[in-house]
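Project standup — Tuesday

K.O.: blocked on the structure for the chain from last sprint. Re-posting the sequence here as requested.
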Amino acid sequence: MNFKALARLLILPLALPLVAADAAFPNKTIVLVAWSAAGSPVDVLAREVARLAPKYLHQSMIVEDKTGGDGANAMQFILSSPSDGYALLINTRSMMATLNTDLRGKFTTEQFDFLATLETDPYAIAVRTESPFKTIRDLLASAKTTPISIGGFGADSAHAMLSRHLAAESGAKLNWVPFNGGSAALVAVLGGHMDAMLGNISDQRAQVADGKLRILAVSTDKPLADYPNALPFRALGYPDLTSSHWRGVMAKAGTPADVTAKLDAFFKAVSKDAEFVAFVKNSGLLPYYNDRAAFAKLVKSDMEAMAKQTAASVQK
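H.V.: unblocked you, prediction finished:
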């Protein structure tokens, strides 16, 4: 055997693993980060997605909760990880809201690849059934003279911004109380420690069904069939408050195209999976799939809208 032939044989085994590793994504466990408390809708969604990973990716996916800092800890974890698709983050409209408020200048949308949205969860204002507020008009009228406490997830989340915008538009005195998750706010309002909560339907539906909670207003364009007495903000004369709380998945910017292509296919398959469709429905959520291109446009549009909301609240 001549020298050149021998050299080729020696080099070939070194080259093959590199090609195989690229082609084999994923060839190890993927970490899916949830940025709000265990048991929250974000955490529950992450675990449902992770459960379906072996079915479509033929690889395990584990969920890690990294709370705190209005999402800063979770985003920093992703940015500290390689851009290889093995560290993903469930992101939400609230997470994007913080980039316009307390995390402005610390993180930007350009640092992430937005992969897909999977569900949406309308905002809702609710009180316990013993509350003197029977309608949203009762609550707002009272709050114009006597401040009321209203709480939900995050100090500068989309929920908090919506409350401030409602206060600015209506003239009501709404004192925001931040929590680490919607479940904690629910416990506070049911215990009578807070007048109302502004959360998501998924946090409230079970307590409504049990007769412990009453939904007064929703952020949808039209009334919801399951809550016919809950007025949309639009019906109160505040169309700019019409919105919904989407949840999706993002990765670190610069993730290779072949990797994002496989993740694209995975999330599309998840959105159509019969078990996932049932999960969304049974959780009181709405299906909301957007691919990478549509998701990027959604984030851009929402960032602009929330910036205007923040400016309007400050001006008033």
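K.O.: great, moving the ticket to review. The longest strand covers residues 112-121. The longest helix spans residues 292-315.
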